[in-house]
């Protein structure tokens, strides 16, 4: 029996994780859940899975939940302290890190400090603080198992091989809804257009990141820390069918790939059950029906966010945390209809160009860079609108 804590249980990854838990009650038990903005769903999850501990954002949400649940209410905490208490729960075996954005960093670090294994969906943790997170995980003996489908594919393709034999990683990208649009057309696209992902159903922020291809940029940075390879040895191929989830090329020319239909339950289940596998009721991959798998180079003129992510990774220090924070602010502004799609990349570039301190020695350096970039991004947006 594995005791799980699910940070961000009401989101897309959280719901898929609980779907797997519900199908394997003999293997997994839910110790703690956290949610931010969907109290109705959190209430349903508490009734179904009966966690010992729950955390929400505000004290008002905590009170609402207590009233609705009455005598079956578990202990309900709020704020960052509440998230940290869930993440470091003494009886947990694994923490599923599925909060969206930089808000996931501190709770994930708390889980690592507690020595818990992590099923890592929150890529922003490694983007903003990669070297610090990896060092603490090693020091505390916390294993990081990726949930992100590309990283799960690479993780699986590395199993049984020597790391020293790896030549490069090839991350695949669907190319998002705008792969075939021209740069001129991209200037006109709306939030509703960008929220239509062709292959994956995900939360709003990552769906916009997929449309700008910032998601792939964040994933390159995530891969850099997770697999300890420099940016020059991490390539991106656009693969619109989303069947090959990523690949590892070895020094003898062998390329090992992991394939499957695009369904996040597969990489989530692998992270939960690693090194074993558990049965899932999902449709079989039928390559004969799909017929063709295609690959192409990403267009960095159209998808400037991917280029900016490589640049931030090469610059190092807090540049990736700045990139991430500016992106979060720009994406929210785009979703509110304030800035255009192409301005997302322009805002991030402007923030990255401004002079700033760049040392990354402590989590506080990350938090400071994050705050600085958010305020810079907000000012840049004000100047545009
Ligand atoms: P989502 O928006 O659907 O859910 C996010 C969860 O985080 C919700 O439970 C929400 O209540 C909680 N949350 C949001 N802001 C919070 C805050 N400030 N404090 C506490 N909790 C907060 O997001 P998602 O699509 O499930 O993505 C979660 C993470 O997983 C992201 O980092 C994303 O990049 C990554 N990821 C998602 C997918 C996917 O298929 N959805 C795939 C790969 C990686
Ligand atoms: Mg991914």
Descriptors:
385 residues; alpha/beta; seven-stranded parallel β-sheet; 17 helices; 48% helix; binds magnesium ion; isoprene biosynthesis; 1-deoxy-D-xylulose-5-phosphate reductoisomerase activity; manganese; 1-deoxy-D-xylulose 5-phosphate reductoisomerase
Task: Describe the protein's architecture and organization.
Pathway: Isoprenoid biosynthesis; isopentenyl diphosphate biosynthesis via DXP pathway; isopentenyl diphosphate from 1-deoxy-D-xylulose 5-phosphate: step 1/6. Belongs to the DXR family. The chain is an alpha/beta fold and 385 residues long. The chain has 17 helices and eleven strands. A seven-stranded parallel β-sheet has the order 4-3-2-1-5-6-7, with helices on both faces. A four-stranded mixed β-sheet has the order 9-8-10-11, covered by helices on one side. Strand 2, helix 2 and strand 3 form a beta-alpha-beta unit. The radius of gyration is 20 Å and the shape is globular. The N and C termini lie far apart (54 Å). The site of nicotinamide-adenine-dinucleotide has 27 residues, from helix 1 and helix 10.
Give the uncertain stretches in residue-range form: none
Shape: globular
Give me the count of strands: 11
State the helical fraction. 40-55%
Query: Oligomeric form of this entry?
Result: single chain
Q: Hey, roughly how much beta strand do the residues contain? A: 5-15%
How is the main sheet built?
7 strands, parallel
CA-CA gap between termini: 54 Å
What is the overall number of helices?
17
What is the helix/strand order? EHEHEHEHEHEHEHEHHHHEEEHHHHHH
What strand order characterises the main sheet? 4-3-2-1-5-6-7
């Amino acid at each position: 029996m594995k005791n799980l804590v699910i940070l961000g249980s009401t989101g897309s990854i959280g719901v898929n994780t609980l779907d797997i838990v519900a199908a394997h009650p003999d293997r997994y038990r839910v110790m703690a859940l956290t949610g931010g903005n969907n109290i109705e769903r959190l209430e349903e999850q508490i009734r179904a899975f009966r966690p010992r501990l729950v955390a929400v954002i505000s004290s008002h949400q905590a009170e609402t939940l207590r009233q609705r649940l009455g005598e079956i209410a578990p202990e309900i905490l709020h704020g960052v302290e509440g998230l940290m208490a869930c993440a470091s729960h003494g009886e947990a075996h694994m923490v599923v890190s599925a909060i969206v954005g930089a808000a996931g960093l501190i709770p994930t670090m708390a889980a690592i400090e507690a020595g818990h294994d992590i099923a890592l969906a929150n890529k922003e943790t490694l983007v903003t603080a990669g070297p610090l997170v990896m060092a603490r995980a090693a020091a505390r003996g916390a294993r990081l198992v990726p949930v992100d489908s590309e990283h799960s594919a690479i993780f699986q393709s590395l199993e049984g091989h020597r790391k020293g034999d790896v030549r490069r990683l090839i991350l695949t990208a669907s190319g998002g809804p705008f792969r075939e649009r021209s740069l001129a057309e991209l200037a006109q696209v709306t939030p509703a257009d960008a929220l239509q992902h062709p292959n994956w159903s995900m939360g709003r922020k990552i769906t916009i990141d997929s449309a700008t291809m910032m998601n792939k940029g964040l994933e390159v940075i995530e891969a850099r820390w997770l697999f300890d390879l420099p940016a020059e040895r991490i390539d991106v191929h656009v693969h619109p069918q989303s069947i090959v989830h990523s690949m590892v090329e070895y020094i003898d020319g062998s390329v090992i790939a992991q394939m499957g239909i695009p369904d996040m339950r597969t990489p989530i289940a692998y992270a939960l059950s690693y090194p074993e596998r558990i049965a899932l009721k999902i449709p079989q991959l039928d390559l004969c029906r799909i017929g063709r798998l295609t690959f192409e180079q990403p267009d960095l003129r159209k998808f400037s966010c991917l280029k900016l992510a490589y640049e931030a990774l090469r610059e190092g220090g807090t540049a990736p945390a700045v990139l991430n924070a500016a992106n979060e602010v720009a994406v929210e502004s785009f979703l509110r209809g304030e800035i255009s799609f192409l301005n997302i990349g322009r805002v991030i570039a402007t923030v990255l160009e401004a002079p700033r301190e760049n040392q990354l020695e402590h989590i506080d350096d990350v938090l400071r860079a994050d705050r600085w970039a958010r305020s810079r991004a907000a000012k840049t947006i004000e100047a545009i609108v």
